[in-house]
């Protein structure tokens, strides 16, 4: 009995098992693949972002997606809306794309270090500069991560931020990572100046689509019927 207990203690303390908790019972499948939240409309890869000209292909609803390779590369796609308690009409929309390298640390945390070519688009109809694109390359630290088996939706990935707060659960949509090339795709520098797309407070002219101008009312209608699904 004592021998069995000592063996169990050794296995729990083993660095090979501790690294990212890959072999733990709550990680039932590989992290490798593509994961997406909510309605799964946001998915990494060429269907979401074109870093060559810093544009986006806009999904019908908001959400988050991550892809991971087996050799340490990741890609992240995000489409979010942020409310304004002072003025409900001033909803801010944000699109973010980054990719780079990730590390599963011995303390079960995960570190994501992006390349220098990430970018985001921000739309705020109540701001002086209502629609612009800027460089975005913030690193991320997740305190821990877990993969569970959901009886209805299959494998489910939970990420916990540096302070332990949970991120919206992500569901496995592909066992193969759906990603753009795993290398820097632009030669961006920290001196990159945000590109202004629209400088106006006219809500009717705010645009989120690459093919033309649409009214903010359409965006708000989308939000009302489910754009907050994450």
From TrEMBL:
UniProt record similarity statement: Belongs to the ROT1 family.
Protein task: Required for normal levels of the cell wall 1,6-beta-glucan. Involved in a protein folding machinery chaperoning proteins acting in various physiological processes including cell wall synthesis and lysis of autophagic bodies.
Lineage: Eukaryota, Fungi, Dikarya, Basidiomycota, Agaricomycotina
GO cellular component, one term: endoplasmic reticulum membrane
Highest taxon of source: Eukaryota
Subcellular location field: Endoplasmic reticulum membrane
Descriptive protein name: Protein ROT1
Biological process annotations from GO: 'de novo' protein folding
